[in-house]
Amino acid sequence: MDVIELLESAALLTPEATATPDDLTAHDIWDLLTHDDWETALNLLEDHADAPPPPLAFWERLATAAQELRLEAGTAWCHWRAAETRNGMIRADLTLGARGAPIPGRGTLRPLWDIGNRSPTGAPAVDIAGLWVEHTPTLAPGERATVRLVPLTPARWTHVRPGQRITLHEGRPALATALVTEVHLRTA
């Protein structure tokens, strides 16, 4: 399948029936594709695909198209959104504490999180979630940003709620604190 076929198939997943005059539709994407503006079509699909959330196939097709267009950031974002579709997502405001270097923002870090779970002995247990920093490629020590988390084991995160504080660990003490603002988990 070539790039234009991938983008066309993804565009078909854009809901036309509920579109307002200001909404992005499959017709808009097809218009860009007929003018060979593939990168703009891909970017628009990435940015406007949230209500209702598209199926996993949408993000997988966009990731393949971005990869074929050699768009590293777009490929990473579409793979990330596919992971969110599979496992769910938690959004939080994170403040990074003292650390020797900035943390990468494009979903490559899979840190440990204290979200209130306990081990069989009653000690704090940590859980893994991927980390995406919104609107910046890195987050330096002392900086604050909105982050997206994709839990490795969503069932262990079902008790997490907006307003809850969670901590990021790379050892002791905690490296960062985050205030949960949004929770959308897939546990089935």
Q: How is this fold's topology laid out?
A:
Layout: H1 3-11, H2 26-34, H3 38-47, H4 56-68, H5 72-87, E1 88-96, E2 103-104, E3 106-109, E4 112-114, E5 127-133, E6 138-139, E7 144-151, E8 165-169, E9 176-185
Written description of the protein model:
By secondary structure, the protein is α+β, with helices and mostly antiparallel strands. It has two domains: 3-70, no CATH class; 88-185, Translation factors (Elongation Factor Tu (Ef-tu), domain 3, Beta Barrel), CATH 2.40.30.10. The chain is 30% helix and 27% strand. It contains five helices and nine strands; from the N terminus they run αααααβββββββββ. The strands form two sheets. It has a six-stranded antiparallel barrel with strand order 1-7-5-4-8-9. Strand 8 (165-169) and strand 9 (176-185) form a beta hairpin. It is elongated.
How would you concisely characterize the structure shown here?
The chain has 188 residues and is an alpha+beta fold.
Structure characteristics:
188 residues; alpha+beta; Elongation Factor Tu (Ef-tu), domain 3; six-stranded antiparallel barrel; two-stranded antiparallel sheet; 30% helix
